[in-house]
Amino acid sequence: MKCRVLIAGQEGMVGSSVYNILKTNEKYKILECKRKDLDFTSQNSVDKWFKKKKPEIVINAAGRVGGILDNKNNQSEYLYINTIIGLNIINSSHKFNVKKLINLGSACIYPKKVKQPISENSLLTSALEKTNEGYALAKITSLKYCQYLRRKYKKDFISIQPANLYGEGDNFDLKSSHVLPALVKKFVLAKKNKKKIVEIWGSGKVRREFLNVEDLADAINFLLKKKIKNDYINIGSGEDISIKALAYLIKKIINYNGKIIFNKKYPDGVKVRKVNSSIINGLGWKPKIKLKKGLIKYCDYYANIIMPNENLS
C-alpha cells in the first residue's frame, strides 16, 4: 500500500520540485491538489479535504512569497495569508492523524542582528528585520504551532528553514520577485534590448546564501526517511555571496557588456544572512549544486523557457 502524500503548494517553485522528486518513488502516492481544488485559507475546506483524502505525509510549501519590496509594502497580507494557511494545514494534520509533516519556513525568521552563520537557537533572541517582519512572524507562528503539537502529542512534525531559494518555477515578476530572479531578468533583457546600464536595487554590499530548489527538494526527500530529534532545522548551500559579486557573475554568464549601477534608495535588508546547516549535514545530507553551475542553468531557463512566453510590452 503506497503512502499518501499531500504537497501543499504543489504548483509553486518548491512544491513542484518536491513533486517531481517524489513521483519517481514507488512508495508514495501523491495526492493531486491544485490551487483551484482547495482554498488553504479556509479551515473548513481543509478539514473536509483531509477527511476525504486521508494524507499520511504532508509537506507544507503553500503560501504567499515575494521579494523585499513586495514584503515591505504588503506586510499585512504576508502576515495574514501565511499565518492562516500554515495554521490550517498544521491543525488539519493534527486532527486527522498525519504521520509526518514537514513545514516549510524561511531563514528570514531569524533576528536582524545575530551571529553568522545563523544557528537554530538564535530564533526569537532579538528583533526581526522590519522589511519582512510580517512574513517572518507568520512563519514563526507556524513553526511554534508545530513545535507545541510535537512536544504535547509526540507528533512527527518539523519545520525547515532554507536559505534564499532559486530554480525552475521561480517568480520573475520584477514587482514581487526575489533578488536572484530579478537580477537575471534585468541582465537578460538588458542584453536583448541593447541597454547600456542595469540598475540594481540597494548598495550591493549585503551578502546572501542561495540554495537551489532541487537541492531543497532532495533535502526534504532525505528528511522523509529520517526520525528527526530537532523541532526545526536549517538547510543551506554553505555558499554566500555579496549582491554586487552576484550581479557581476550573472553579467559574465550571459555575456552582457553594459555597466552596472546600484540604487541606494532601495532597502538592503539585513547585512548578512547565512544559515548554519550543521544539523542536517550531521545527519548525512549535503547540497550537490554549486552556485555558479546552478546559475548557468537558471539563466538559460529564464532566457529560453520563461522570457519567450512573457508579455514584455
Topology:
Layout: E1 3-8, H1 13-22, E2 28-31, H2 43-53, E3 57-60, H3 68-73, H4 75-95, E4 100-104, H5 133-153, E5 156-162, E6 164-166, H6 179-192, E7 197-201, E8 207-212, H7 213-224, E9 232-235, E10 240-242, H8 243-254, E11 259-263, E12 272-273, H9 278-283, H10 291-306
3D structure, described in words:
41% of the residues lie in helices and 17% in strands. The strands form three sheets. It has a six-stranded parallel sheet with strand order 2-1-3-4-5-9, with helices on both faces. Strands 6, 8, 10 and 12 form a four-stranded mixed sheet that branches. A two-stranded parallel sheet has the order 7-11. It has two domains: 3-167 and 211-235, NAD(P)-binding Rossmann-like Domain (Rossmann fold, 3-Layer(aba) Sandwich); 179-205 and 240-273 and 289-308, Alpha-Beta Complex (UDP-galactose 4-epimerase, domain 1). Helix 1 (13-22) packs across helix 7 (213-224) and helix 8 (243-254) packs across helix 10. It is α/β, with parallel strands linked by helices. It has helices at 13-22, 43-53, 68-73, 75-95, 133-153, 179-192, 213-224, 243-254, 278-283, 291-306, and strands spanning 3-8, 28-31, 57-60, 100-104, 156-162, 164-166, 197-201, 207-212, 232-235, 240-242, 259-263, 272-273. Strand 1 (3-8), helix 1 (13-22) and strand 2 (28-31) form a beta-alpha-beta unit. The chain has ten helices and twelve strands.
